[in-house]
Amino acid sequence: MVSLKQALIDNDSILLGKIAGNWQEAVCIAVAPLVVSGAVEERYAQAIIDSTEHYGPYYVLMPGMAMPHARPNDGVNRDAFSLVTLAEPVAFADGKEVSVLITLAATSVEVHTGVAIPQIVAMFEMPDVIGRLVRMTEVSQVLALIDEADISQYVTGKGDI
C-alpha cells in the first residue's frame, strides 16, 4: 500500500500558496500535477467541476478543506493524491470556503473509502492543521506534517494508494 505521503512524492503533487480566482480554478490547479504525472487525464478536472455544479461541494470535508474527486471512469489512470494550499480561500456556491485541497484520484471505491479517506481523516484531526498548512512554504514542511499524523491507526491495508 502506498501512503498519502508517498503518493504526493511520487506525483510531485504538493503546490503551496497558489492563487485561484474561484473554486473552479482551484480545482484545475489541484488536478494539474496529477495530469502532469499521468495519474489522471485532463478531463478529470472538468468531471469534478461538472459533478460539483450538479451535486454541490460534497467533498468539503471540514471548514477550510476539500477533497475534490470524481469517479474512477472520469479519467483516473492510477491511484494518486495532490495537496494544494491557496493564498486566499475560494468560496463555493453554498458559501463554504476552502484554502486546502487534497485531490483524490482513486481507481476504485475500496481505495476511496478504505485507504484515502482514513489517511486524510488522520491528518486533519491534528490541531490547527489548516492554518499550519496554509502557512507552509516548503514541500518538506508538508511531508513532515504528514509524518506527525498517526495514519497507521486508520489504514486497513485494503486497496493501494
TrEMBL record:
<dbReference type="InterPro" id="IPR051351">
    <property type="entry name" value="Ascorbate-PTS_EIIA_comp"/>
</dbReference>
<keyword id="KW-0597">Phosphoprotein</keyword>
<feature type="domain" description="PTS EIIA type-2">
    <location>
        <begin position="7"/>
        <end position="149"/>
    </location>
</feature>
<keyword id="KW-0813">Transport</keyword>
<keyword id="KW-0963">Cytoplasm</keyword>
<dbReference type="InterPro" id="IPR016152">
    <property type="entry name" value="PTrfase/Anion_transptr"/>
</dbReference>
<dbReference type="Pfam" id="PF00359">
    <property type="entry name" value="PTS_EIIA_2"/>
</dbReference>
<keyword id="KW-0418">Kinase</keyword>
<dbReference type="GO" id="GO:0005737">
    <property type="term" value="C:cytoplasm"/>
</dbReference>
<keyword id="KW-0808">Transferase</keyword>
<dbReference type="GO" id="GO:0016301">
    <property type="term" value="F:kinase activity"/>
</dbReference>
<protein>
    <recommendedName>
        <fullName>Ascorbate-specific PTS system EIIA component</fullName>
    </recommendedName>
</protein>
<comment type="function">
    <text>The phosphoenolpyruvate-dependent sugar phosphotransferase system (sugar PTS), a major carbohydrate active transport system, catalyzes the phosphorylation of incoming sugar substrates concomitantly with their translocation across the cell membrane. The enzyme II UlaABC PTS system is involved in ascorbate transport.</text>
</comment>
<keyword id="KW-0598">Phosphotransferase system</keyword>
<dbReference type="InterPro" id="IPR002178">
    <property type="entry name" value="PTS_EIIA_type-2_dom"/>
</dbReference>
<dbReference type="GO" id="GO:0009401">
    <property type="term" value="P:phosphoenolpyruvate-dependent sugar phosphotransferase system"/>
</dbReference>
